Amino acid sequence: MKRIALFCLLLISCPVLAQNYDEAKVPHYTLPDVLKTTSGKKIRNDEKWEKSRRPEVLRLFEDHIYGKMPTDYDSIRYALTEDDRPVMDGKAVLKQVGVTVFKKKNSVQINVVLFVPTQVKKPVPVFLLINNRGKENTDPTRVKKSEFWPAEMVIDSGFAIAAFHVSDLAPDNKDTYMTGVLQKLYPEQLKMDNGMKAIGAWAWGASRVMDYFETDKDIDAKKVIVVGHSRGGKTSLWAAAQDRRFAACVTNCSGNTGAALARRQFGERISRINTTFPHWFNNNYKKYNDKENALPVDQHMLIALVAPRPVYATNASKDLWADPRGTFLALKAAEPVYALYGIKPELPKDPPGIDKPIIGPHFGYHNREGEHNMTAYDWGNFIRFAKKF
Ligand code: GCU
Q1: Residues 110-125: pLDDT tens digits?
Q2: What's the 269 CA to ligand 1 centre distance in angstroms?
């Protein structure tokens, strides 16, 4: 008896132990119908989806999870700090761009590292990484090279590659996240229960980099693929969901409140993410701690907001925390919205095996053997996917 009581106490005090990793213990759940409006109307075509249901779903995500993203600012300036410097044995040119956004005498600067291939006809498509890891991963000098952002490999395949660091927008820290774009440009957001927090601010930054791409004649701004890993992958999905200028989205190992279904309650759960990272999502989201079924949305609806644009989601076999099966099922459950645009189902009913990628044209998915990470294997598949559309 004593032992049972001790175990129960441990479960309560140590949320890690309370996570479920057993498929047999996934509760029965019903996903909200992405094609049914809140007033109960069934959506049967893309026009109705775009006019009524899509804006409604977007609002639900803003209000209950990611926060409403402000779009107003006074001006934006782009300063090229380095240009026409051939690098990578002449295969690319390095551009470092300071994107500065001004509002009421305050400003925020986003530092973009961009390599453009020299041996390809311009304008070129580009992969934009939202970098949530160390800045050395996107080293402009290439002294340090990282699989997380394999610039040489992407350049060799004919694409440009860019990155910015999340800390330019909001420090990834619960005590200081507000010191960037939030306090400087949008302090009112901090008082709103549906105001954006760090992940909203990072996604806002991706859109400002998109503003820059629209002015760069080397870049095909209609072919920008936004990429993120883990918390960055939650961000890339949110960025692509609301900014329809992004041509496609890669959401790598994004897990809970990224591409994985919340209602499965497998691996990381909402209560856990809100406790460990209270600065990522809005205040309203805290109401759903241990109440996944009360959410008016689930993450398949976030993927659906990207439709008809392509989405590639990944997992890693040892990263059960991010719920590989739940990620695949979310993609699958978004297919009915793609069908409104005449896109036939591309995904099987069940997830493919480990290292068996499914590549496009509209959906990409793989579960890589190994740990939570973004590697050259993952990027190789993103490139194959991008070449398909
Ligand atoms: C933690 C967090 C995840 C997140 C990950 C990351 O594990 O719980 O939700 O995706 O960090 O960003 O690496």
Answers
A1: 999 999 999 999 999 9
A2: 11
CATH number 2.70.70.10 given to 31-388: no
Task: Give the tens place of pLDDT for each residue, 161-174.
Answer: 999 999 999 999 99
Active site residue 230: yes
Domain borders along the chain are 31-388
Mean pLDDT, range 295-315, rounded to an integer: 98
**Segment 93-114, tens digit of pLDDT:** 999 999 999 999 999 999 999 9
Residues 234, 228 contacting (CB under 8 angstroms): yes
Active site residue 372: yes
Catalytic residue among 157, 230, 236, 254, which? 230
Would you say the CB of residue 231 lies under 6 angstroms from ligand 1? Answer: yes
How far is it, in rounded angstroms, from Cα 65 to Cα 257?
8
